[in-house]
Structure formats: C-alpha cells, structure tokens
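Revision sheet: structure tokens.
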Amino acid sequence: MKALRLAGIFLLGWGLFCAVPPRAAAGEGKTFTACWWNVENFGVTDRFIDGRHVLSAMKPAAEINAVVAILRKIDPDIVGVAEIIRDPQDRNIHLFREVLKQAGLDYPCMATVLGHDTRIQLLLLSRFPIVAAEELNKDRFPVTLVDGRTRERREARFSVNRGFVSAEIEVAPGYRLGVMLAHLKSKKADASKAEIEIAPEEPGETGDAVVRRKEAQTLRGQADAFLARHPGEDLLVMGDLNDTEEGGSLRALWGGKGKESPLWPLPLVDRLGEQWTEVVYPKKTRERIDYQLVNASLRTRFEPEGSFLYLSRPEEGPGLDATTASDHRPLVARFRVP
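Predicted:
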C-alpha cells in the first residue's frame, strides 16, 4: 500500500495513519505487550452522571483520568479500544490519543473502522509501525425474521454492525503481527425492532445471540482469510464478544479442537485468580465477555508472566480502579519476539 505524506503524517489508507516517526521495532528476543479495553463511551454522548440522565455530556474527568492512569501503569505497546464515540471530525479519537500522549504514552500509529453503528467505533493504537490496515465493514450474513403479530417469516441479510479492524504491525525487523479488533452485538434488545423477531437457529437461542454468533462466524472467516493471505504469520484477535465462554460466539470464533487453525482464548486471570472482564449494572454481576485470542504460532510466544487481567490494589485508590474508568477492565498479554 503506497504511503502519502501530509503535514507530518503518513496516510496509509482510510482509517489508518502513522505520525512521523513511529517507535523503532522491537529487537530479537525482546517482548511486547498488547492490551484490549472497552473504555465505555469515551467522548460526548448521552449518559448517566451521579444518577442523572445528562444529554450530550463528555465522559467525566475522573473516568478519563482513570483510563489514562491505568494505561500508563500497564504501558502497553499495542492497544485495542472499544466504545470511542464517533465524531465527524474524529475529535474523540484525537482527544484519547492526546491525553495519553500528555501522560507519556505516545502511539504514533492508529487504525479504525467506521461500521454501521453510527454511535461508537473501534480504535487500534501502536508504538510500532502499522504497515497495512483494512476496514472490514461490508460483511453481511443471513437471518430469518418473524413478524411478532402475524408470525410470518422472511429472509433478510444483516451487516456486521460495528465492523472489524484488521491490521499488520511490524513489531520487529522481519516480524509482522496480524491484529484484528471486534465488538460484537450487545445483549440489549433493539427497541426499534420490537415487533420483528429474529428466529432462533439453535435450542434456547435468542435473537441477539443469533446475530452475535453470526458476527463471530464472520470474524472467524476474516481471520481465516487473513491467515491464508499471510501463511505462517502470527494473529492476535481482541474484542468485546458480549458473550460468555458457554455462548455460541466464542465457540464460533475459537473453532474448537477439531478446527484446522483454532484461535485459542488466552487464559488470563487477575491477581486473585478471577476471570471476569465486565461489571453488569444495575445488579453489579460480573461476567467474562472480553477476550484475546491467538493462532497456534502466536500461542507459542505467549508469556503467562506479564500477562493478566487488570486489578488494582485497594491502597492505590479510585484513580487506578478500573471500575472508576469503565464497566470493563483491561486485558494484557505479553509475547516474545522471535
């Protein structure tokens, strides 16, 4: 992909740019870390603040400060982020990168995707050069719709709502890492489609679960296509799947033990040995719905020491507490450079 230089920025394609210059690639035998985090509505949107519904409000300063402080503590080389509020001028992306830079976290390279969800988007940041990136926002899949009153059925095709980010990062000379980001369908019902149901395809499956599973199958297909185009390359898939290990989404993405090229979910735990990644309000239940998955070759480079689910210590206070920053918490994985 040809690079164009404009105002100190290399433009490498829609949704991708690298400031000049990116950090030098890691050396042989070194390690790098990748972090995934749903930072919960970073930007201006309608939100609840102190129990009140506030229109068009910026993410509170205490939450932003906690996001920055936690990422500064983790100090990852590659960051995948969900729930950046979309803006026509990308002001929320610029703000996110700027507050990190002011804290000493400079990520000169980024990639994003504009999906059919007009409210939020994914963001990939890297200290290393992003040498190629693609917005995967054109995939569609079949579903069966049922009229809630007449029970008439009809076939339809849905789009992957938030799209996927697909990128290649040059972590070290001669070593490129494939990275894909996803944020699958939420478990919240779509009020605008209350009279139309999505027909289940598996026992006990809800309509939103059908969509999630098919989005995961689509992501799996994109991962397979990436590996076919780049044989022998390592691949890291990070995302909020909005599904637990028992759900169909993770099974579809993983592929199972019989799959020729399974994607393995990394066995991350916090310092207490717990695996939850989201606090579900208002009941404050905890679920594991965020994952980092790797192909077989990257699995051999995974270093359990230095990999974890983030959990602060009580003495560190609310400023380093992930629940101050978001309803999710960061996942961190360390890998060896070949």
